[in-house]
């Protein structure tokens, strides 16, 4: 553990006047909203990306800043002021850039957000770019003069000191971008880049970055990356830990800690194994690990994490976002009281910041990017780039517990060397009802599991697990504890302890939300390509086709009016430049299952929806499209999947979201909403999510991306083989297993055969033997997987050349 010296710290003025964060009224507006998204509030820029850097209630307004991808010297991004009746005001002081910093300075009664200082009368002052260049990522209270100064850090490790009265800037550490230095700051030698967090306390300033300049980060999520560093008022950053870190905060949140000498500091990060929580308590650093709900954030470059936060939303616990999960985070989290971090629900949106305002949770998102960055794949085809745009998402606080299912995957060790009799970090097991662990080791050993029952740092032995190659164990429901840790009786050169956990699967299906979206087998379907336009038109174009061959071109505007436009040229252009790509060489449906081949020629098999039949006169719709920045939604054979970018694991880390019976022709994001093409107006009724065209001939569905959870849980049938000719010793294609419930397997062979069933525990090719089955000729063998058992992929190998079937049912 690292001990930090603690100089005298100037206390925050507890009696200072400040404007409160929370208000109590509900938004009052006649503008339409779709699943909590108001199209008229969408914001746009002219850059490769338009993310939400910060969302802060201040002076009876909601303040929002947007950012472009790498613009240290300004951009077309804006500062927005949103009134209680949801009027959006673009502030004329806007200078853009890539800002995500925010801090409320109590003593001067100002909000610092991006390069702007806003007082209680909503007067906006601007720090010129030439005085503070860089991608402004976070602001923090000053170490020795907090009443009069603050710090702001940049994504390239620059550090500035700002006088809150005059806004005079002093450079302490140089920003890493190739622009002229603005002062006498020292050079940073901290590894990594792509800074995210900054916070002060216990005598130091703590800074986090989550990326690396290594070229391999473009393809490999296992490259060492990121850093957590500290600064003591002079010199350069000092390395605390070499991992990817994002948020740094404490119980004081956006205001800074009230008792900076003693209040804890928390930093949230991750590596290839799992989420990492770093805790600075009484001058010493402690680390804890949490599972991941999504692997879409795993790129070692750090680009696709945005800004995970821990924020006060007016509840007993704080709210944390990290790796696709909403988490409860206790305000009292410390070494003596580490209980209380629990999962709430998973989500698909990309969330940059969030707050509570007018009895709603307001989430600022990163929805539509002009630039696909590293997220190109053949399955998506070539789509003319949209204009970058994003929006706010207003939800009731209770909805935080009712989006996607609670799921947790991650490791203490992942093919790691392990010293004998050395306890691992603690791993969170509280808040999950189904819990199991995969163990692998290169030599025979005994893994001892210990539990911290109360979160007070007191460890109790739970059990010993003999491991010789592979073993797995259920954490029984009777085991009530906050944390678990592991140690090995022998020194290991390659060991894995991988957790698979989930919560109770509640029934939150609301298929009526999608009434009017065409179902498979419908004959009267209207659909075709959709695309958010560029060139600051801020509209969406739609080519509608029907079974009788009638086609039409339509424009959806910001008021959600779908208007017919007589333009054959635009219709032709759209059908060519946003064409639904040919599936040849990418997707095939055979007797066994659905076969997907990625851009590297790697084959994967996924389930078919048992009630889904390829039908309809228009044919198979789009199977893959980016619906949040650097996130793809994969719609295949009646199931929506979350598909990470290739640099975050690609198809190996795909996970099912929901199964459906919809005949969707196309989909995209627009003004923060998910737009679905493929409607049957005869079945739409009065569903407000259906946008009817002004000529009454067609329509679109509009809602939130996370509405797709409400289609129903994932189900499927299929497998690697179905009466397939199999060679002895040749492994089958991998078949998706993760995220499904009630799993059963049937094996058949035309000859007596020994069939070995293997599972990939991590989704990255970590195959182990699950069980060996003796299969007599023409006598099926059935096997039900234990209810708690989960793995990412499953495959089968036969010791005999035969005609074989290996089929799984997920109910």
What report would you give on this structure?
The chain is an all-beta fold. The protein contains one helix and 60 strands. A four-stranded antiparallel sheet has the order 2-3-4-5, with no helix packed on it. 56% of the residues are buried. The N terminus is likely disordered.
Strand content: 35-45%
**Main sheet specs:** 4 strands, antiparallel
Q: Approximately how much helix is present in the residues? A: under 10%
Radius of gyration: 27 Å
**Shape from CA axes?**
globular
Number of helices: 1
Strand order of the largest sheet: 2-3-4-5
Quickly describe the structure.
With 811 residues, this protein is an all-beta fold. The chain is built from one helix and 60 strands. It starts with 42 loop residues before the first strand and ends with a strand.
Descriptors for this entry?
mainly beta, 4-stranded antiparallel sheet, 1% helix
How do the strands and helices of this protein lay out in sequence?
Blueprint: E1 43-44, E2 51-58, E3 61-67, E4 79-82, E5 88-90, E6 102-105, E7 110-113, E8 116-119, E9 124-126, E10 136-141, E11 149-154, E12 159-163, E13 169-173, E14 193-201, E15 204-211, E16 227-231, E17 238-241, E18 244-249, E19 265-270, E20 275-281, E21 284-290, E22 310-311, E23 318-322, E24 325-329, E25 342-346, E26 351-357, E27 360-365, E28 389-390, E29 392-395, E30 407-418, E31 427-428, E32 434-441, E33 445-452, E34 459-467, E35 470-474, E36 483-488, E37 492-502, E38 530-532, E39 540-545, E40 551-556, E41 562-565, H1 568-577, E42 587-589, E43 594-597, E44 603-606, E45 624-628, E46 631-636, E47 639-644, E48 655-659, E49 666-670, E50 673-677, E51 690-692, E52 699-703, E53 716-726, E54 735-736, E55 743-749, E56 753-760, E57 767-775, E58 781-784, E59 793-798, E60 802-810
Antiparallel strand pairs: 1-28, 2-3, 3-4, 4-5, 6-7, 7-8, 8-9, 10-11, 11-12, 12-13, 14-15, 15-16, 16-17, 18-19, 19-20, 20-21, 22-23, 23-24, 24-25, 26-27, 27-29, 30-37, 31-36, 32-35, 32-37, 33-34, 33-36, 38-39, 39-40, 40-41, 42-43, 43-44, 45-46, 46-47, 47-48, 49-50, 50-52, 51-52, 53-60, 54-59, ...
């Amino acid at each position: 553990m690292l001990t930090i010296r603690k100089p005298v710290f100037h206390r925050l003025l507890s009696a200072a006047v400040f404007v409160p964060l929370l208000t109590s009224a509900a938004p009052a507006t006649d503008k339409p909203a779709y699943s909590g998204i108001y199209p008229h509030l969408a914001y746009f820029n002219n850059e490769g990306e338009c993310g939400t850097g910060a969302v802060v209630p201040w002076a009876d307004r909601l303040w929002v800043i947007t950012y472009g991808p790498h613009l240290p010297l300004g951009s077309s991004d804006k500062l927005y002021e949103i009134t209680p009746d949801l009027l959006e005001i673009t502030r004329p002081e806007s200078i853009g850039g890539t800002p995500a910093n925010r801090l409320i300075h109590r003593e001067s009664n100002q909000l610092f957000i991006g390069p702007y200082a806003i007082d209680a009368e909503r007067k906006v002052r601007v720090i010129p770019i030439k005085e503070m260049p860089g991608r402004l990522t976070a602001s923090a209270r000053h170490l020795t003069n907090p009443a009069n100064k603050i710090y702001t850090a940049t994504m390239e490790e620059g550090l500035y000191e700002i006088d809150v009265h005059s806004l005079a800037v002093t450079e302490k550490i140089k920003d890493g971008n190739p622009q002229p230095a603005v002062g006498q700051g020292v050079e940073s030698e901290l590894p990594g880049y792509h800074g995210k967090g900054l916070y002060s306390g216990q005598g130091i300033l703590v800074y986090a970055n989550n990326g690396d300049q290594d070229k391999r980060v473009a393809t490999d999520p296992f490259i060492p990356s990121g850093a957590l560093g500290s600064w003591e008022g002079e010199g350069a950053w000092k390395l605390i830990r070499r991992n990817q870190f994002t948020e740094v905060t404490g119980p004081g949140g956006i205001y800074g800690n009230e008792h900076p000498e003693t209040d804890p500091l928390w930093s949230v990060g991750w590596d290839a194994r799992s989420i990492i929580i770093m805790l600075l308590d009484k001058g010493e650093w402690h680390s804890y690990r949490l599972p991941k709900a999504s692997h879409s954030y795993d790129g070692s470059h750090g680009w696709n994490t945005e800004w995970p936060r821990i924020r006060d939303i007016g509840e007993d616990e704080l709210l944390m976002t990290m790796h696709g999960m909403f988490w409860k985070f206790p305000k009292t989290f410390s070494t003596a009281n580490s209980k209380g971090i629990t999962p709430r629900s998973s989500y698909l949106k990309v969330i940059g910041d969030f707050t509570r305002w007018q009895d709603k949770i307001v989430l600022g998102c990163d929805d539509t990017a002009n630039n696909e960055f590293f997220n190109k794949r053949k399955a998506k085809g070539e789509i003319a780039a949209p204009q970058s745009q994003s929006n706010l998402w207003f939800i009731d606080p209770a909805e935080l517990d009712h989006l996607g299912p609670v799921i947790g995957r991650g490791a203490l060790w992942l093919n790691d060397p392990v010293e004998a009799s050395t306890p691992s970090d603690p791993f969170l097991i509280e808040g999950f009802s189904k819990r199991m662990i995969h163990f692998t080791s290169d030599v025979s050993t005994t893994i001892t599991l210990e539990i911290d029952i109360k979160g007070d740092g007191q460890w109790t032995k739970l059990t010993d697990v003999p491991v010789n190659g592979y073993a797995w164990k259920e954490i029984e429901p009777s085991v009530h504890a906050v944390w678990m840790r592991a140690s090995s009786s022998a020194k290991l050169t390659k060991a894995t302890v991988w957790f698979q956990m989930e919560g109770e699967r509640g029934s939150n299906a609301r298929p009526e939300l999608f009434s009017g979206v065409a179902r498979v087998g419908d004959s009267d379907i209207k659909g075709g390509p959709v695309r958010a336009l560029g060139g600051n038109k801020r509209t969406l174009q739609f080519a509608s086709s029907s079974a009788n061959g009638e086609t039409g071109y339509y424009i959806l505007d910001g008021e959600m009016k779908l208007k017919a436009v007589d333009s054959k040229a635009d219709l032709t252009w759209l059908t060519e430049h946003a064409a639904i790509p040919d599936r040849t060489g990418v997707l095939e449906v055979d007797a066994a299952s659905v076969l997907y081949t990625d851009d590297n020629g790697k084959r994967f098999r996924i389930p078919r929806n048992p009630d889904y039949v390829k039908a309809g006169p228009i044919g198979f719709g789009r199977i893959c499209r980016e619906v949040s920045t650097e996130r793809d939604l994969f719609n295949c054979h009646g199931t929506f999947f979350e598909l990470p970018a290739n640099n975050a694991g690609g198809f190996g880390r795909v996970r099912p979201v929901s199964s459906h019976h919809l005949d969707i022709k196309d989909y995209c994001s627009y003004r923060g909403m998910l737009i679905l093409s493929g409607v049957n107006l005869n079945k739409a009724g009065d569903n407000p999510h259906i946008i009817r065209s002004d000529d009454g001939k067609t329509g679109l569905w509009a809602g939130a991306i996370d509405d797709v959870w409400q289609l129903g849980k994932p189900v499927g049938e299929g497998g690697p083989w179905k009466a397939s000719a199999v060679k002895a010793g040749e492994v089958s294609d991998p078949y998706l297993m993760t995220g499904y419930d009630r799993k059963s397997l049937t094996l058949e062979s035309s000859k007596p055969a020994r069939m070995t069933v293997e599972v990939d525990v991590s989704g990255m090719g970590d195959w182990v033997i699950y069980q060996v089955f003796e299969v007599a000729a023409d006598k099926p063998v059935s096997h039900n997987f234990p209810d708690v058992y989960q793995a990412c992929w499953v495959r089968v190998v036969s010791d005999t050349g035969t005609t074989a079937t290996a089929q799984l049912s997920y109910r």
